[in-house]
Amino acid sequence: MSIKVRGIRKSFGNYQALEDVDLEIPDGQLVALLGPSGSGKTTLLRIIAGLEFADCGSVQFDGKDISDRSARDRHVGFVFQHYALFRHMTVFENIAFGLRVRPRQRRPSKAEIREKVNELLSLIQLRNQANRYPSQLSGGQRQRVALARALAVEPSVLLLDEPFGALDAKVRQELRRWLRQLHDKVHITSVFVTHDQEEALELADLVAVMNEGRIEQIGSPEEVYNRPATPFVYNFLGNVNIFHGRVDDGKAYIQESDTGNLAFVRPHLLEITRQPNGANHFRATTTHINSAGPVVKIDAVTEWGAPVHVEISQEQFQSLALVKNETVFLTPKDIAIFNRG
Amino acid sequence: MDRRPQGTRTGSGGSELEGTVASIAQAQFRGAPGAQAGVAGAATSEPAVVRWLLIGVAVAFLAIFLFLPLAVVFSTALKKGLDVYLHTFRDPDTQAAIRLTLIAAGIAVPLNVVFGVAAAWLIGKFEFFGKSLLITLIDLPFSVSPVVAGLIYILLFGMQGLFGPWLIAHDVRIVFAVPGIVLATIFVTFPFVARELLPMIQSQGNDEEEAALTLGAGGWQTFFRVTLPNVKWALIYGVILCNARAMGEFGAVSVVSGHIRGLTDTMPLHIEILYNDYQFVAAFAVASLLALLALATLVVKSIAEWQAGRQFAAESAAGSEKTP
User: Fold this and answer.
1) Does residue B257 carry a pLDDT above 90?
2) pTM for the whole structure
């Protein structure tokens, strides 16, 4: 089911959580709402779910306006950040809940419910834990139960609020892959909220980057990472060096004087050499080298005293044999210039 | 490929570290109440003399003010033998008093359960204008002297009271009759259920209710299947306290009762009357019944607290795992 959000505004008292948000989610896509905390992403998700109502604007499912419908009638599956499992019910009862509370004429028989729940238990690989209580499960298991419970009612849309936020790094990785596979199998339109850019880029078909109640950019992970539309997106997705500069006659000058433009250069797009290389270089002194991991991270100070981060491959690092407190030349391979206004 | 194990190692190393931090936090959490558990306990514990002195003072205090009176109640009641003791309960006035107490509690407790659950739910789950005023009002019976509470009903429903003439004209008796006693009991026991439930409901937040809502449950379904089971033990605890107070209430009931033997005497009032008539054995026999009720209340209360505590412990253990 496609989702369309039109001109949504929402404020809590004096705090403006969402300002005129438009968002279109095509059918069957897995979409990430990515942003720092306080950017309004969870509020937007809750408005789509019907757990919160917008001050103005509309939400459409498949072109039908459902802004006034309550969460109960929207037929969405919602996975809460802390799972919100029913603590006094077993795993089985938790998953069966949505089927059991249906009005009698639409309620499946006991045998059908059992079959459906067992099917979901197999899907989340927790068949042996059916009679356990949520407090007896690990974080990752709870997360999967919450997902199965949401899927049990066969929702038309799946909404996940920080689905991996409360898990440790390794479980998070596994669940991420598992969710991606699940989505490829079930193909249900899904929206998840995250503040973790890596998670959004790895998992989603589309990423909507949010900041201060607005959507800054929507696009494929490749698009938002390689062609950020705004300084915020550039800064938020991946590491970046920011220089002051100006644009003159199609040429960018960095660190001339404070002239109102900002130049963004990703750390891995700075070429590092011992000798001056072409015209577009500047001098810097290395201050710290971290060579653990697949990329070597080098901290340096530019000739005008600003810190700069450079990332190079292990091979390049070995061949250069850089050391601390060495003067090097940096050549930006790609610069993005934004107006500072 | 050769970098992979390294990556995994750092990954699991990170999670191990988190696990350790969590377990330390848990150990401290569990260690804190039991003073001698753990290293931290040893540093903060007092010398043996001080410890035994404090324990001795506490035990002596309990013995003098709690166990001794209780023992006196039962020993006086049984002083002249079991026959005399049992004979008390064959007296029609005593039976009437017991019956009236049961009626008053039987009406007041269910009403206050309904009210208390509704009020706690309203206050705990919703924001509305006048919320703090409602909380204050719920606490009012705690702060008002029961005698004053009784007098309020006299002033409202008594012969010279606000509604007095109307009630006389329609031949409705409230004061000096059973309805007055029930009203006074309801007033006095008003806060118990709400007060017990409120912190529990507030601490649980709205998440599970919202989850139920998105799963298609209606308001009543959510309430009976999710909200109520989660506060079950707090509710039972509140009901017990409410019941104990309803049966034991003296002041407010005394004012509105009129002390008509066999008609408007509750157990506590009956005890006073018997005592003033120098029928000590009978007085203490009825008192022993109330004392037994108190003991039974304590037992059920301990079970309720133990269960609620267990639930809380399970949740906080779950909680500490949740937040890395």
Assistant:
1) no
2) 0.74
